[in-house]
């Protein structure tokens, strides 16, 4: 493997490497569209050095390449004398956490891959497979802004829009399709979306959509949503109009979520959430105006940080190991009766 970068946990750029608590030592992997992040998490729950390596090239062979990279990094991550007991692997796209089957990855190009079987054939450790937003959501629920709540929604507002839904303390998976709120239509016949529809939440309220729409309307190219927020704060009326549309779309989408499951809290993360009061203030007001029958859930900013997916992978690995240990105990009890 080439171009691997190493960063010690706890540096300024890795402030999210919070301890997950005592338990079995595990390996954690977070596969993104451009980078794979990996860490060994010790028995105290503290992540060690985080290794980063480029994600494989787009295409059908990328799934095998990911598992090959995981196998190589696993050996490099494990300290001398250490014995990790399980491995957590977080993947992008449509992923069924319960079966380990990945239907599709827009960024890496695989389709219909049984990652559970692939990992069993190539890795010696038990493997727990998760979806990137649900893994990050798991970290938020156990370590971050969702802690203490049982029914919550964690929404990531970045290049796209996706959510992790938790009901009675458990993630809703629905064969990997739960939480795809980014492709719910909030403005009929609105902006074109990459999925082929029009007016999807992702096409209106993602950080990428805000920057793209402002660039088109103003004739001034901007690199991201932060510049749009800064322009709005300086009195730019085009920026204000773009922002208002994004807030309106997000409020509509969240109003449906609130009406359907009545979350105790809605956690917002990703680039757009960094706008702070510019987002949360008007969004709270608009959401309250739309919800006349059900209570308005609190809106809070995500706190698990940029490595939430990695922490979630470690938590998933421990849970899978607990289930394996429970089954082994049950089998021994049955055998002795």
What does this structure look like?
- This is Glucokinase.
- With 337 residues, the chain is α/β, with parallel strands linked by helices.
- It has helices spanning 62-77, 115-122, 132-143, 201-205, 207-218, 225-233, 237-261, 277-290, 308-336, and strands at residues 5-7, 26-31, 35-41, 50-54, 86-91, 94-96, 101-104, 111-114, 127-131, 152-157, 161-167, 170-171, 265-269, 299-301.
- The strands form three sheets. It has a six-stranded mixed sheet with strand order 1-4-3-2-5-9, sandwiched between helices.
CATH topology of the largest domain: Nucleotidyltransferase, domain 5
The overall number of domains is 2
- What portion of residues belong to β-strands? 15-25%
Average pLDDT, rounded to a whole number, is: 92
Structural class label: alpha/beta
Order of helices and strands: EEEEHEEEEHEHEEEHHHHEHEH
Shape field = globular
End-to-end C-alpha gap: 50 Å
Name of the CATH first level of the largest domain:
Alpha Beta
Unreliable sequence segments = 8-17
In this structure, how is the largest beta sheet organized?
A: 6 strands, mixed
CATH homologous superfamily descriptor of the largest domain:
ATPase, nucleotide binding domain
Oligomeric category? single chain
Any idea what the radius of gyration is? 21 Å
Helix content: 25-40%
What is the CATH architecture descriptor of the largest domain? Answer: 2-Layer Sandwich
What is the number of helices? Answer: 9
Strand order of the largest sheet: 1-4-3-2-5-9
- How many extended strands? 14
Pfam family, one: ROK
Family: Belongs to the ROK (NagC/XylR) family.
Protein name: Glucokinase
InterPro entries: ATPase_NBD, ROK
């Amino acid at each position: 493997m080439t171009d691997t970068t190493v960063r010690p946990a706890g540096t300024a750029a890795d402030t999210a490497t919070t301890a997950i608590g005592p338990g079995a030592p595990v390996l954690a992997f977070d596969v993104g569209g451009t980078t794979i992040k990996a860490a060994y998490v010790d028995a105290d729950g503290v992540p060690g050095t985080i290794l980063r390596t480029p994600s494989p090239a787009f295409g059908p062979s990328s799934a095998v390449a990911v598992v090959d990279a995981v196998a190589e990094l696993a050996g490099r991550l494990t300290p001398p004398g250490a014995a990790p007991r399980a491995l957590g692997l977080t993947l992008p796209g449509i992923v069924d956490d319960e079966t380990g089957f990945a239907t599709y990855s827009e960024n890496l190009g695989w389709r219909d891959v049984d990652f559970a079987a692939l990992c069993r054939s190539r890795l010696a450790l038990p493997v727990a497979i998760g979806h990137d937003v649900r893994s990050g959501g798991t970290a938020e629920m156990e370590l971050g802004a969702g802690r203490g709540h049982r029914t919550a929604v964690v929404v990531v507002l970045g290049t796209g829009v996706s959510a992790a839904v938790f009901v009675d303390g458990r993630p809703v998976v629905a064969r990997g399709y739960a939480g795809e709120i980014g492709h719910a239509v909030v403005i009929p016949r609105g902006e074109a979306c990459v999925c082929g529809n029009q007016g999807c939440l992702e096409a209106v309220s993602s950080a990428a959509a805000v920057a793209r729409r402002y660039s088109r309307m103003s004739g001034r190219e901007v690199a991201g949503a932060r510049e749009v927020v800064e322009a709005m704060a300086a009195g730019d009326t085009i920026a204000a109009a773009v922002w208002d549309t994004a807030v309106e779309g997000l409020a509509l989408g969240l109003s449906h979520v609130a009406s359907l499951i009545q979350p105790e809290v809605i956690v917002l993360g990703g680039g757009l959430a960094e706008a702070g009061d510019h987002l949360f203030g008007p969004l709270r007001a608009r959401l309250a105006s739309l919800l006349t029958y059900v209570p308005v859930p609190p809106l809070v900013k995500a706190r698990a940080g940029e490595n939430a997916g990695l922490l979630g992978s470690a938590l998933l690995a421990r849970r899978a190991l607990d289930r394996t240990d429970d089954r082994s105990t049950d089998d021994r009890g049955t055998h002795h009766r």
